Amino acid sequence: MARALTILTLLFGVTCMKAQTPKQWRDSLSVLSKQVDTYPHSTDLRLRKAAVELQLLEWKDAVEDCDLVLKEAPGNLAAIYYRAYANNSMRRYELAKEDYEEFVRLAPESMEGRLGLAYTYIQLGRTSEAMDKINDIVEMFPDSSVVYVARAELEKELKQFDVALYDLDKALELNPRDIDSIISKLEILIELGRRSEAKKVLDNAAKSGLPMGRLHTWYAKCK
What we know:
223 residues; mainly alpha; globular
């Protein structure tokens, strides 16, 4: 599940915030903490503080801030989402599942919320239910490459390589330069001993301009 975790972490991270260095995040947290001390009932400030805490991997502090937000504003979607993500990161999967279920109930059209719930089912060992959830997501968002990659990762774990390759091909139709999809496809082809096909995938990726630094190791595996 390592690659699935990477994909989902990228998807569920606080991507709406601009990139900063760890020191800049620390400085931002210091400023926000002082502001929260001055305005302890401001849900906006607490949510911004929780978002920075997620960036700094301070999961428990983020959960505490989300708890306080939800006391002030029950049903706040951002707080539920952040808390679910933090609980997943702390391997508190039952708590994460409860939050994602609530999030999906309140925002049924959210792809991120539904994928978060499916991922949590995987962590709980409930792969059949996870696959049902992901199949539903694919039906809802057939034009998103992310959902096909997510399903392919679960199919790989279940050793369903043929259908995983189908989903990765679909993902690459939608996003031909997605390096994670390409590498995931290479992993399957090499696992199946189909090295000549894997080399063709690599050659096409190199021709499309993808960085050779990411592809060089895979050429050695195709020999």
